[in-house]
Amino acid sequence: MYYTYLKNYSALLILSLLSIGLYSQQIQLLNSDNLRIDGINKMKYCTGNIRILNDGVYIHCDSAAINDAQNTMEGHGNVYIFQPDTFNLRGKMVFFNANTKMARVSGDVVLSDNQMVLNTPFIDYNTLNKSGSYSSGGTILSGSDVLSSEKGYYDSRNKVASFRKNVLLKNPDYTVISDTLQYFTSKKTAYFFGPTTLLSDNNKIECVYGWYNTSLKQSSFSKRAHLYSQTSIVSADSFFYDRGKGIGLAYVDIVLYDTLENFKVYGQNGWYNENSKVAKISEWPMAEKFSEKDTFFVLADTFYYFSDTANRRLEALKNAKILSAEMSGKSDSLYYFTKDSCIVMKNTPYLWNGKSQINGDSIHIQMRENKIHTMHVVENSFVISWHEEDRFDQIAGNRITNFFDNNKLQLVDVDGKAQSIYYSRDNDTGAYSAINKIESGKMAIYLDSNKVSQIKIFPSPNPSGKLYPPKQFSTEDKKLKGFTWLPHLQPVAIDFIERRPVAKNNTENGKN
To answer: Which of 80, 169, 342, 343 could form a disulfide linkage to 365, CB 3.0–4.6 angstroms apart?
Structure first.
């Protein structure tokens, strides 16, 4: 057996002694305190201050065995692999193949560059491609971001890390839990590929695909995403969220579910200001207010929803319509205050309740358990109840207050320029016996099954009343000034149903 032992070995000495032409791909031993050479097996055994070079990559360790025939080396103790200004890799043991440029490092491994620090028990690292992978768990620190997973891959050249299985990203604002995640350390941006959850102090977001920039505090989610807060749940096909500005955008099949008010809003285009608690929803918006016995619907061209706890309300602007089991209506704009269940309709509002129509300059409705309790009609107020053909009971005045019982109109209180026409029937024959036409400053009309049963006239200047036999009631007298009967404009269920998102989304986060 042929062995050579050398002390204080240096790169120049080994070159002169061996007289072997070394190429850049060969492992070069630059320094070792002690060296034993096995010429037959082409092995070098080194101890103490070992420095090795291969294609611009340096390897330091306490002891090493270099196989010149296979162009490989195995090192132990204080392993340090680096390329200046590129990467640093530390561990306890390394096996390096200079032909494939693969370094297998184990034992408290730390890989770092100018963007991140990776800790893992074991890594396979390609010194040519500047990329490494692990499969026994690892953690990356990049600025204020901490990422961990069971499996991972890091590309130092492109500054991108890929993670698989039990992925966790933590920063001061969010915690991200995912199955598959790609992270660009230079951009501080994480991309999600698979079911992902983002958690913060204020909300939770669930998505299947998306990205999150931890530096700009901006994120985007798609393939049906859901945002959960303390009082609401929002879902949409895609979201964009700027946490720094507190602005969120949602697109396609939006469902906003106010869990506090049991209230849902649908739409195709949404905008939300987290600071002012205001949401704007456009493109076929529709809202539903649920109760055990009935559902109340609203639609318009544009919604503004104010979700501040002290002042929760919905503003439905332009071409507003409402619908419930006993009531439908339309107006140019509508305001729904959830705290006191109050609805305000403005600009040519019309309401239909059974065979009755109500209209005026504005209408204020007080709801109880999704049913009408009282209704105030302000200025140019009109109530019409249809009998048959061209026969209508009519009530007009400056201000009309309507009182309901179980969604049925029971009492109409008229204040200012009160007028009424109502048809009386014979109790025995059911035929019309007379028509009453009354004018007064104030009156109260009682109804039964949408038919006038009693009228009280209060003392006022110049009250008048006249009873007409049916045959003597002229066509000109049949309608009060301002009469407009528009049943064809009543909203119908299909107007609202067609604005709901497709059936697969109706069951999300609430009732159908």
So the answer is: 343
Q: Which residue has the higher pLDDT, 383 or 311?
A: 383
User: Looking only at Cα atoms, what is the longest distance across the chain?
Assistant: 139
What is the rounded CA–CA span in Å between residue 45 and residue 63?
8
| Cα of 53 vs its chain's centroid, Å | 53
Global pTM? 0.75
CA distances from 33 to 46, 113, 138, 146 (A): 7, 29, 34, 40
Q: Pick the closest to residue 483 from 429, 421, 431, 435 (CA basis).
A: 421
The answer for residues whose C-beta is within 8 angstroms of residue 349's C-beta and 6 or more apart is 329, 330, 331, 332, 334, 359, 360, 362, 363
Amino acid at 423: Y
Cβ–Cβ under 8 Å, residues 167 and 181:
yes
318-342 confidence digits (pLDDT tens): 999 999 887 899 999 999 887 788 9
Residue 383 contacts residue 394 (beta carbons within 8 Å):
yes
- What domains, with CATH codes, occur in the chain? 1-109 (2.60.450.10), 137-223 (no CATH)
Nearest-angstrom CA–CA distance, 435 and 257: 51
Sign of CA dihedral 192, 195, 200, 205: positive
CB neighbours (10 Å) of residue 16? 9
The answer to whether residue 23 scores a pLDDT higher than 70 is no
Query: What six digits make up the tokens of 145?
Result: 């971001």
